[in-house]
Amino acid sequence: MTRVATLDTFNRALQRITDANARVARAQEQIATGTRITTPADDPYGAAQVLLFEQNLAALTQFTRNADSAEVRLQREEVSLTSAGDLLQRARELLIQANNANQSDETRGFVAVELREIRDQLVDIANSEDGRGRFLFAGSRDTEAPFVLSGGSVNYGGDQGTRNIQIGEGLFVEAGDDGASVFMRIPRGNGTFVATPSLANTGNGIIARQSVVSPGTYTGENLTIEFTAADSYDVIDSGGATIATGSFAAGDTIVVQGIAVEINGEPQVGDEFDISVAGFQSVFSAIEDAAVALDAGASTAAARAALSSSLNRGLDDLDQALGIVLETRATVGTRLRSIDAQRDLNASYALITQEVLGEIRDLDYTQAISELSQQLTALEAAQQSFVRIQGLSLFNVL
Amino acid sequence: MSGFFTSGLSALTGIRTALDVTGQNIANVNTPGYSRQRADLIPSQPQRTLGNSVGNGVVVDGLTRIYNQFVFDSIVDTTSAQGRLSQLSTYSDRVNNLLADPESGIAPTIQAFFDSIQDATADPASIELRQAVLGEAQALANRFNRIGDELENIAAEIDRNIGATVDEINALSSEVADLNNRIAAQQNGPIPPNDLLDQRDLALTRLADLIGIETVEDSAGSVNVIALPGVSLVTSGGANELVATDDPLNPTRRRIELRSGQTGATSPIELSSGQLGGLMAARTTIVDNTRDLLGQTALTLATTLNTQAARGLDLAGNFGNDIFAVDGALSARPSADNTGSASLTVSIDDLATFTGDSYELLFNGTNYQAIRQSDGEAVTITGTGSGADPLRFNGISIVVAGVPTADDRFAVEPTRAAASGIRLALSDAEDLAFAAPVSAEADLSNVSGAAISINTTVDIDDPDLLSSSVIEFVNPTTYTVNGAGSFTYVDGDPITLNGTEFTISGSPVAGDTFRLQANTNAFGDNRNAIELAGFRDRGVLDNGRTGIVGSYGRIVTDSGIRTRNLQASVEAQDALRSAAVRQQQEVSGVDLDEEAANLVRFQQAYQAATQLIAISDSLFDSLIGAVRR
Predict the structure, then answer these.
(1) SS3 label, residue B334
(2) Percent of chain A topping pLDDT 90
(3) How confident is the model at residue A394 (pLDDT cuts 50, 70, 90)?
(4) Which of A237, B151, B279, B556 is deepest in the core (most CB within 10 A)?
C-alpha cells in the first residue's frame, strides 16, 4: 500500500499548477511576439540560421541601396553623355557646312565662334555633378570641377580613378567614368595616323581621306610624302631614307606601310604632306583646332587646301570623339541594365530568404492558439483538481 | 482481578501516548523535515496467576521515527546535483536572454556599421556619410560595452553569491556539528533524539543543496559530511570552515579555501557540486567564457578594421588612424603570490588561429605551461618567451620581461575585457581612411592606349610607398623606372614597385609614360572603404572560415545550445529529486487521513479502556457488597 503524505500531495499539486502556468505564459509570449524563437535556447540552430538570414537580408537591402546610388550617378552620366553627343553632332554639321566652297572668311568666322561656344558647353557638361555635389567626370578628385578652360585650352585636374560600388554578393559596378578617358584621350584622325599638309605648301593639294589598309603595318614613325613633281612623289621615313616613290594624279591614293592617304587637288613641286602617329588629344582641342583653322581664313589656294585638310581631319577627330561618347554611353546603358537585373535578383533573393526566415522564425498562429487553449485547459484542470483534492479529508466527516 | 485493572490503566496510559503521538504528527503536518512518529505499544509481560498466564496490559516501548536511510541518501544525492544545475541554468538563461534580446543583440549593430561604410562608398568625400560611419561605430562600441558590462555585473553578482553561500554553508556545518554532539549525548538516553535527527537531516539537505555532500554516519550516531568531490566539511571533531578569499590570480574574484577546525590552516579547495559548485562553474564556463568569446569578436573587429584603415589614406592624405581602441584587452596578470619579477606582454600573433580563450600560464622553473581556463586543458606552447622567440599558442604571442621563479603563475586573458573596453578612437570623420594609398595614371599625352591599373598594396610598410615613380617606355618592350634601369615589359604581367603591385596592359610605344603617386586629394576614392566594408563577410578567424558576424553568431548558438541542455538537465534532475522526495514522504510524511483514522481508532480504544476501569470498579463493588453481608 502506498502512503500519500498530505504535505506532498499539496506540494505536488501546487507544482503542477506552477508548471501549467509557466507553459501558458510561454504560449502567450509566443503569440504576443509572433515568433517561435523567443530566445536562442528555444531552437539554437534555428536561432543561428535566423541570424544568418537576417544578415543576408540586411546585406541585400544595402546592395539595393548601393544600386540606387550607382543608378543615379549613371543616369546623370547618361544624360551628360547624350548632351555631349548632341553637341558633337552639331559641331560636326558645322564643320561640314564650313567646308563648303561658297563659305566666306566671315561666315567661317561665325562657325568658329559657334564651335567655341560648343566647346564651352562641352566643358560645362564635362563638369556635370552627380546630384550630391560631386563631379561626375573627375575620377576620384571629385570635389572640384575637373575641367578648367584657360586661353583656348582645357586642362584636366581630375585623376583616372574609377568608383566601384557593390550591388550584389561579390558584384561591383563602375558608377562612372573618369574625364580623362571620356574627354581627354580622343584618338586623333583615324586612330592610327594623321596626315597633314605642310604649312609651306604652295599647291592646293588636300588630304581628303586617310585610312588604314593593313592594320598593324604602320611602324608609328614620322613619314613625309614629298612631291618631286606635280605628278610624282617620294615617301621619306624618319631617317631621311626614301622608302617609296610613285606617280600622282589628283584623287590618287598613296599607300605606304599599310596606310592610305587620298590627296585631292594639285600639289606643287616641293609640297610636303607629313604623316605621324595618331596619338590622342582632347575633344576640346580638336574643336579648338578646327576653330583656329577656320579663323585662319582661306585667301589663297594653298590656304584653302590647308583649311580643307584641317576640316577633313577635324571631322575625323569629331567622329572619334563622338564614337567614344557613344561607346561610353553604351557601356553606361549596359551597366544600368545590369543594375536593374541585379536589383531584381536581390529582390527575389530577399523574397526567398524572407520565406525561409519566416518558416524558421515565425509562429504558426493556428497551432500556437490551439496550443494556448490546450495549456489553459490543463491549467484549469490542475486548479480544479487541486481544490477538490484539498477538500477531501477524513476530518471533514468525523 | 488486579490484572484486569492494571491492564485498563496501562491501556489508558499507552493509548494516551499513541493519541499524543498522533496529535504531534497532525501538528507537524506542514513542518519541513518532520518524520512522522509512532508509539510502539507492546503487551506487558504476563504475571503468573492460578496456572494461567494473562498479559498485564500494554506498555509503551518507545517512539519510533519512521525513516529510511537509503531514501534520505538519495535525497541528499539528487539535491546536490540539482543545486549545481539550478545555478548553471539560471546564469545560462541570464546570458542567453542578454544575447537574444533584439534591443541589445550585437548582430544588427554590426550590420548597421558595415552598411554605413557601404553607403559611404557611393560618395567617400561626403562628411555626412563619414559622420554616419562614426556614429554607427560608436553605437556598435556602445552595444559591445553594454553586453560586456552586463556580463561583468553578472560575474560580480556571482562573486557576491559565492560569499553569501559560503556564510550559509558555514552556519549549516556548525549546526550539523552541534546536532551531532547533542544527538550523541541523547542517543542512549530515555528520550530518543527524534526531533534532533529531523533537524539534522533538514540541515544536511540544505547543505547538500548549497555545496553538494556525501554523508557517513559513525557508530556514535554522528554524521561526517564530505563536500563533493572530497572536502571534509564536518567530522566527529567538529566543522571545518570555508573561507572566500581574493583569488591571487584575479583580485576581483573570490576563491574558496578550507580552514581546518583543528589547526586553523587554510588551503584552496575544488568544489564541484551544489549551488556553490554551480556558481563557480557558471562563473568560469558561462560568464567568463561568454565574455572571452564576445571579447574575441570585439577585438577581431577592432584589429581587422584598424589594420585595414592603416592601409588607406584619410582626407588629409595621411595613413588611417585606428578606428577602434580596445581598453584592457590582451591582459596578462601575474599572480599576487608570485615571487619572481616576470611580467608578460601579450599580442595577437595570428588572427587566423586566434581562439579568444583565457589561460593560466605556469612557470615550472624551466618551462611554461598554459592551461585553458574554460576546460582546464593544457595547450601546446612553442618558443622561449624572449623578444626574438616569444611564447606562441592559439594565435597569441607572449614576451616575458623580468625573471620568473618556479611556480609563478599568470592569468592570460587576451579578450576578457575587450567587449567592455572597445571604444571609438576616431573623433574626426575626415580621419576615416577610405582612399587607397597610391594612384596610377597614364600620361594624357601617351601615344598608345596602354592602360595602368593598381592591383593591391603588397607592402604597406615600404618606406617609399608614397613616393612618386615614373615608368617610361624606351621601346615597346622595355621601360625605365624614374629614368633608371631597364625592365622588360610583358603585357598584363603584375609589376611590384615600392610596395604597390600594378599592371600595365596594351601595347605601349616609346615615350609612353605612366605614373604612380601618393593618392592625395582623391577625396572620391573609395577603394579602401570597399576593403573595410568587405570585412562584414570576410573570414578572418579559424583560418579564414569565420567572419566577424559569424563569430558572434557562434556565441549565440553555443549559448542557446547550452541553455537548452541545462534546462533539460534541470528538468531531469528535478524529476529525480521529486521522486526521491516523494519516496521519502511516502515513508516519513504525515498523512492526515491516516492520522484521522488513528484518532478514531485510539479514541475507541481509549473508551474501551475506560470501560475496563468502570467494569473493574463495578466488579469490585459487587465483590465488596457480597462480602459485607
Answers:
(1) strand
(2) 53
(3) confident
(4) B279
Q: With CB atoms and an 8 Å threshold, state whether A141 touches B521.
A: yes
Cα angle for residues B263, B266, B267 (degrees, 5° grid): 125
* Residues of chain A found within 8 Å of residue B113, distances taken between Cβ atoms: none
CB contact under 8 A, A279 and B93: no
Q: pLDDT band for position B483 (50/70/90)?
A: very high
CB contact residues (below 8 A), chain B span 538-557, against chain A:
549, 552-554, 556-557
With a cut of 70, say whether residue A98 has pLDDT above it.
Answer: yes
Distance from CA of A8 to the nearest CA of B (A): 6
Does residue A203 contact residue A227 with C-beta atoms inside 8 Å? yes
Within an 8 Å CB–CB cutoff, is residue A6 touching chain B? yes
Cell of B352: 587566423
The Cα–Cα gap between B126 and B260 comes to 71
Note the pLDDT tens digit of each residue in B573-626: 999 999 999 999 999 999 988 999 999 999 999 999 898 888 888 888 888 888
Banded model confidence at residue B44, pLDDT cuts 50, 70, 90: confident
Helices (H), B352-399: none
**Closest listed residue to residue B197, CA positions, set B209, B180, B185:** B180
Q: Chain A residues with CB inside 8 Å of B597's CB?
A: 394
Q: Contacts of residue B106 in chain A, CB cutoff 8 Å?
A: none
Distance from CA of A264 to the nearest CA of B (A): 28
How does DSSP assign B159-212, residue by residue? Answer: HHHHHHHHHHHHHHHHHHHHHHHHHHHHTTSSS--HHHHHHHHHHHHHHHHHH-
The H-assigned helical ranges of chain A are 6-33, 44-98, 105-126, 179, 283-295, 301-361, 365-391, 394-397
- The residue type at B1: M
The model's pLDDT over A303-329, given as tens digits with 9 standing for 90+, comes to: 888 888 888 889 999 999 999 999 999
Ramachandran region of residue B445, left (φ > 0), alpha (ψ -120 to 50) or beta? alpha
* Cα distance from N-terminal residue to C-terminal residue, chain B: 21
Q: Which residue has the cell 502512503?
A: A3
Which B residues in the span 5-64 are in contact with A, Cβ-Cβ below 8 Å? 29-30
One-letter amino acid for residue B124 of the chain: P
Q: What secondary structure does DSSP assign to B546-612, as a single string?
A: B-HHHHHHHHHHHHHHHHHHHHHHHHHHHHHHHHHHHHHHHHHS--HHHHHHHHHHHHHHHHHHHHH
How far apart are the C-alpha atoms of B58 and B46, rounded to whole Å? Answer: 10
Is B160 an interface residue toward A (CB < 8 Å)? no
Instruction: From B499, B438, B447, select the one nearest B472 (Cα to Cα).
Output: B447
User: How far is C-alpha A318 from the chain's CA centre?
Assistant: 23
**DSSP label at B45?**
P
ipTM: 0.86
Chain B within 8 Å of A390 (Cβ-Cβ)? no
Among B177, B182, B251, B242, residue whose Cα is nearest residue B210: B242
Find chain B residues with C-beta within 8 A of A184's C-beta. 444
- pLDDT reported for residue B629: 61
* Helix axes B127-186 and B69-100, enclosed angle (nearest 10): 170
pLDDT score for A309: 85
pLDDT given at position B512: 93
State the pTM of this model: 0.88
Share of chain B above pLDDT 70, in %: 98
* Residue with cell string 609614360: B513
Distance from CA of A260 to the nearest CA of B (A): 20
Strand duo A280-281 + B500-505: pairing: unpaired
Closest residue in B to A146 (Cα) is: B522
pLDDT of the residue at B537: 85
